[in-house]
Inverse folding.
């Protein structure tokens, strides 16, 4: 049986060759890269964002721009090293001009995320923003609990997965902390909820 690292490498190779996506065009015209995911292959906690931004697509690394700095600040708040967790997105290529991902783009890339989750087998999945929240809640059989992110952020949902059980915590996207520093206490409070489960 393939190891987690071998499976993740296979997923990476498939994504690098994934020219079926309409977003693939961006790679060839703008010299950008897909962002596969990064971190501990045996992480207990997996963070799932939305889609790469400009800096991420330039470097191929998730959350390495302004949103990433907020994410780092939030991780530091609970003394959780980034190297201990796994960070990825639902959509692996940058939507042009940072527009919202389209439902068909989410549908196209989500199977890769599903396989990353199956390989890493996190005990806790933290969604960052409403797109990953929506996708993961539907995927985990929690659709009946979907509500506005401002209502269900910071709540802990239990779900069954092929490898046992998982907890899902929806959180605001870290970009919220860039535009509104007043939201930082809320973002930090949700991280403290995560910390209480570690
Ligand atoms: N926003 C996201 O959702 N993901 C990233 O990797 C960067 C910004």
């Amino acid at each position: 049986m393939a190891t987690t690292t071998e499976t993740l490498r296979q997923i990476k190779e498939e994504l690098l060759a994934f020219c079926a996506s309409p977003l693939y065009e961006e790679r060839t015209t703008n010299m950008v890269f897909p962002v596969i995911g990064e971190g501990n292959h045996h992480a207990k906690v997996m963070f799932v964002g939305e889609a790469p931004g400009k800096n991420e697509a330039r470097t191929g690394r998730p959350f390495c721009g302004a949103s990433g700095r907020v994410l780092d600040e939030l991780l530091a708040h609970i003394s959780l090293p980034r190297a201990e967790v796994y960070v990825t997105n639902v959509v692996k290529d940058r939507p042009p001009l940072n527009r919202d991902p389209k439902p068909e783009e989410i549908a196209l890339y989500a199977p890769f995320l599903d396989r990353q989750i199956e390989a890493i087998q996190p005990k806790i999945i933290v969604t960052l923003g409403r797109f990953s929240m929506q996708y993961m809640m539907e995927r985990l059989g929690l659709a009946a609990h979907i509500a506005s992110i401002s209502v269900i952020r910071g709540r802990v949902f239990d779900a069954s997965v092929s490898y046992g059980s998982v907890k899902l915590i929806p959180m605001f996207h870290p970009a919220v902390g860039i535009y509104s520093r007043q939201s930082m206490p809320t973002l930090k409070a949700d991280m403290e909820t995560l910390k209480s489960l570690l």
User: Anything to note?
Assistant: Residues 114 and 139 are 9 Å apart (CA to CA). The pocket of uracil is lined by residues 35, 49-53, 56, 62-63, 67, 89, 129 (CB under 6 Å). The mean pLDDT is 95.
